[in-house]
Structure formats: structure tokens, C-alpha cells
Amino acid sequence: MITSEKDTYKTIDVAKGDALFKDKGSKFIGYAFPVTSEEEVKECIDGLKKKHHAARHWCYAWQLGIEEVRYRANDDGEPNNSAGNPIYGQILSKDLTNVLVVVVRYFGGVKLGVGGLINAYKTSAKLILEEVVIVEKTIDVFFKVDFEYQHMNKVMRIVKEQNLQIVDQKMELACEFLISTRKKNASKVYQLFLDLRCLTIKEITP
């Protein structure tokens, strides 16, 4: 079983929007969304395109995953690396995952140049990420424990002593618990249950 010192991650729980930055007539409006899939990313961007249908660009960056992280940065028609990467840099600076940051641009008639664009998109992303509430969550491991009802007290003793969460349960003559624990405690918890020798336990993905 794999263990790791790091078993927490930072993300946001609530979407935030309308952080405004202006430069030479152009308006840049920043938004941040909690997301867990690329489907959610698409829904958020589609929603902004409807809301800001007169805008010129909808540039964004996202990062998804907890232990296997993936990301994307999109310039949406702006010069290469002038929008998506500066936005993504702000996500990295806050050490966030499962987050999407979009900056909507209304063109003001004056070109800003690559340097100006980098500054505008970076600043817009920074402004919105300063407004969000960042939360720290634990990386949890889930176990399915099967045992006979007569061993309930032994199982519950470990659950209470280790402060485990019972996510789901079936209690009949044959019982089944779905239990979660912080990743850093997973090996210890697994061994404690194994040592009872009156049950079966396996790690699962709920």
C-alpha cells in the first residue's frame, strides 16, 4: 500500500466572478470555478460565452486531479502564451487543483502587445484568486470491510479509536462497512483490521 507525507490539497468550493481589470480601453473580467472534470470545465466556459456573448476572447486555464494532476492553458485566439499560461501561473502560485480560471476580454480598440496582454491576463487571474475562499481538503483512502455481526464490537473499537468515518454500511448477519481514512493513516488502519483475523478488507475506489 502506497503512503505519502502529503495527504492534503488546496481547492475552492464556491465559484467567484466579475474581478475587473482595465487597460487602454480593454476590459478583462476574471472568474474562478471549482471543477472536477473536463465536462464541468466546458459547461462553465459555455455559460460565460452566453453571458458575455459580445466579448472578444474567453481565455482560461484549469488544473484537475489530486495525485495525478493534469492541466490545460488556452489562449483562445490571443498570441501564443500571452493569456492561458499567465492565468495558469496564478493557479500554480496558489497551489490549487480542481479549479478553472477564465478571463473574459472585451477589446477596447487599442492593441496591448504581448507584454501588455501577459500582464493583463496575469493580473486578472490574480485578482479573482485573491477573492476566492481557498480550502484545504484531505486525500482519503476507502476500505470495504466485510465481517460477521458477532465481531461488530471489535470492528467498532478500531473505528472509534482511529476516528474513522463510516461512509456506508450494511448491518445484517453478514456486515459490510465502507470506511474512509486520511491517506497518511491508511497503512496503519489496514493493518489494524487485518490483525483481527475475523474479517476481509480491501481498498476500493468509491
UniProtKB/TrEMBL annotation:
InterPro entries: Impact, Impact_N, Impact_N_sf, Ribosomal_Su5_D2-typ_SF. Gene3D superfamilies: Impact, N-terminal domain (3.30.230.30). It comes from the Bacteria. Residues 24-128 form the Impact N-terminal domain. Coiled coil: none annotated. It holds the Pfam family Impact_N. PANTHER family: IMPACT FAMILY MEMBER YIGZ, IMPACT-RELATED. Belongs to the IMPACT family. This is IMPACT family protein.
